[in-house]
Amino acid sequence: MANVTVDRENSAQIDIYYEDHGSGQAVVLIHGYPLDGRSWEKQEHALLRAGFRVITYDRRGFGQSARPSGGYDYDTFAADLDGLLNHLQLESTILVGHAMGTGEITRYLSTYGSARVSKAVLLSAIPPFLLKTGDNPDGVDKSVFDRIKAAVLHDRPAFIRRYLDDFFGVGLEAGRRAGEQARLSSFRAGVSASPIATYACVDTWLTDFRADLPWIDVPVLLVHGDADRLLPFHATAARLPGLIKDLELVTIRDGPHSIAWSYPEEVNAALLSFLTR
């Protein structure tokens, strides 16, 4: 077990739990909501076999990381990531994020720059801006997020179960790619997360990343499923070409939000091709 201290709350340290395996160029994997670093197992195997050093970590409030009462915003998440990269003294790092993790990458690169980063990979991306506003008509209505927060407060385990049905595309053809045990494992990770974090992170989904995107100056691979119920393709991935200077888009046909688990062959092939190019 390894931890890096990124802050304090009253008498307690705020520690980020991470795992660091293999050797070679470092790949840092940043998980989605409401999971933890263990959700990357299908990518970790492939990356280790390909000769990469693989680092996973748990976002604050999730997995084995500390569970403070605050800091659930992308400025803080990016600062936590910066603390990890500095602690490990990483250089020429490849950042790979899923869903919420793509927000960490975007805010990190716009705030801290690319001195430690050579490439980035966005899977099921949350940028550029998910909320529907007057200047963002393709976004999602705020009432959707209000209902999500109410559901978390009312019955968090029931919400997580319904959320994961959409996560894995239950009811779609792709839903057959994730068995009951995989969904149960994800449910356990989600329900074990901090209730405060589970609720507070919903507001982070409304972050406007449009001003961050022009600062990304490394090659970026974007992989997104066109049947993603949680981060709809038309509101997210379809809008990123032209907003990021050096972007390659791979669309997973019929892919749900859970492409890293449900379509590992396609995702890993695109990932390794991009990383070794």
From TrEMBL:
It comes from the Bacteria. Residues 26-261 form the AB hydrolase-1 domain. Keywords: Hydrolase, Oxidoreductase, Peroxidase. GO terms for molecular function: hydrolase activity. Pfam families: Abhydrolase_1 (PF00561). InterPro entries: AB_hydrolase (IPR050471), AB_hydrolase_1 (IPR000073), AB_hydrolase_fold (IPR029058), Epox_hydrolase-like (IPR000639). This is Alpha/beta hydrolase.
